Amino acid sequence: MKKLAIILALCFVGQALAQKDSDYYTDSDVRKRVIGLGAHVNPFYNNSRLLTNTFNPGQLVTLIDESTKGSWKVGGGLDLYISLTPRFEIVTGVNFGQAEFSYPTLLFQGINDTAALAYSLNEMVDYVNIPLGISFKSDLDNGWWLEVIPGLEFSRLLRYEGDFVRGGNAETEDFMPQTQDLYTWVSFQLGGTFRPFDTWGYSVRFQGRYMLNSLIQEDIYLRETLYNIGMNAGIQYRF
Prior knowledge:
This protein is mainly beta. Helix content is 10%, strand content 64%.
């Protein structure tokens, strides 16, 4: 492993020395290279936001404790960059993500109940996203570019389940039949890309997302939406 690390380091240094100072990614290079492909990983913290505390009005059951517990997940995907001008480009592709959050103490009290019953609820969501953003770029010299990327993302759920636990017994419910065909998120990324060579680049950005739709629109279920905050780290190749 030590020899391999030394060989890789020497190759990288040799490639860097072989580049001229003018080979950094400049405005003229942007004009020449219109299309870019990339891949990224996305570690993030996710949780839900409760839109209404009515769980089942048909049975007069009310959610009393609204606290939720989120989790850390790792997503990823592929990127497509289409340059419009040296300073602006469209960013799209495909992303895969997950969400898992829970209500550690879920209390329900019906109209005929003398006391609230305690449950816990753990919800799991898998989804695929198609992002559409505009990248505003600023050249910081020496290969560094500052990027601000606002956008929208359109997603389809692949899995949505909930585990209801009471007294040590768990019951899983599939929520997919009550979901929508398409969900919309607003997203924001802030960070930079380092492009030491003419074609390859490496990006690190802060990223936040918020889902505009309720996961389930029907009143007999909890009405929740998702949000996540994390990082987006990737590699790019420009044609």
